[in-house]
Amino acid sequence: MVRKLGFLLLFALVLLLLLPADAPVSEVADTLGARFFWEPGRQTGMLSTRDHVFVFKPDVSLGIFDYERLIPSEGVLLKPEGGIFFSEALVAQLVALFGKTDPHKPVVSAIIIDPGHGGRDPGALGRFTSSGESVVIMEKDVVLATALHLYSLLKARYPEKEIILTRSEDLYLKLEERTELANRIKLEPHEAMIFVSLHANASFNTKASGYEVWFLPPEYRRDVIDPEDLEGVEKDVIPILNTMLEEEYTVESIILAKAILEGLDEQLGEHTDNRGLKEETWFVVRDARMPSVLIEMGFVTNEEEARLLSDPEYLKKAGRGIYNGVSEFIDTFERTSGFTE
User: Fold this and answer.
1) Domain count, the chain
2) How far, rounded to the nearest angstrom, does the alpha carbon of residue 204 sit from its chain's CA centroid?
3) The sheet that has 107-115: what strands, in order across it?
4) Residue 133: is its pLDDT beyond 70?
5) Is the pTM here over 0.85, yes or no?
């Protein structure tokens, strides 16, 4: 193993010598054996391999290596003719850092499933007629049934992970209680968690139908670092560290949302509409210090869709779709230690 690592490092150094003084990021990625992701809205980039990840912004003088180490990144250049380039010095530093193996493989160690509403808060209400009788459907029941099925699927697939329901019965919880439960979980440096909130929709337009997945708008600013974890960190560095971690969570939230939407489309697409990805500052999304999404499973105010959402088998299909998306996210995260698609 030591010989193999030494050979790989030597090979990377040889490639480095062949690169121009300012190398395009695509060539840097090839040199490192990394994958490159660029989020244009936030002007943030990420290089990732199985063992390491480097997050950077061209207008910030520090980047984050492996989510915890700050390194100077003045060598990230946006050239007038277009494209992102890395200076020779920065590439040399990254070659050395990426050449080291990490004994701790990054894992998603916890998944928070948040069925919305509950108890005295029924959420959205819908009505339809069945066998001549009026039937009332409540959002809190729809999302709880789906969440319980999702929980069982995830627990069976990932027995080693912590799968947590914010509620497993008809219980009222404040919004703050839901996010506090998630934010209290302590992780090791190589561990991550995700937050998935389930809801059903309502509209004055009774023809509105379909499922959609929401994430926090990329331009929204928030604190994602627990103050208790900042002991010994220089005050000038804290805002930079928060910004970079915030960028990471935003990218991962978008990727998680896309994966879940695709999973729902596969399971429910023949029955109702795919309304796509949406952005909004929902409380549980903006206050969770982790990648987080909010799912609207359908409209209880649409009579046809209300019938579907009252069918246990349909809710199992919805749970399966969400499960498939979450599993795809986890498998990609743990396989590549980062995202580039």
Assistant:
1) 2
2) 31
3) 162-165, 107-115, 191-201, 292-299, 211-215, 274-279
4) yes
5) no
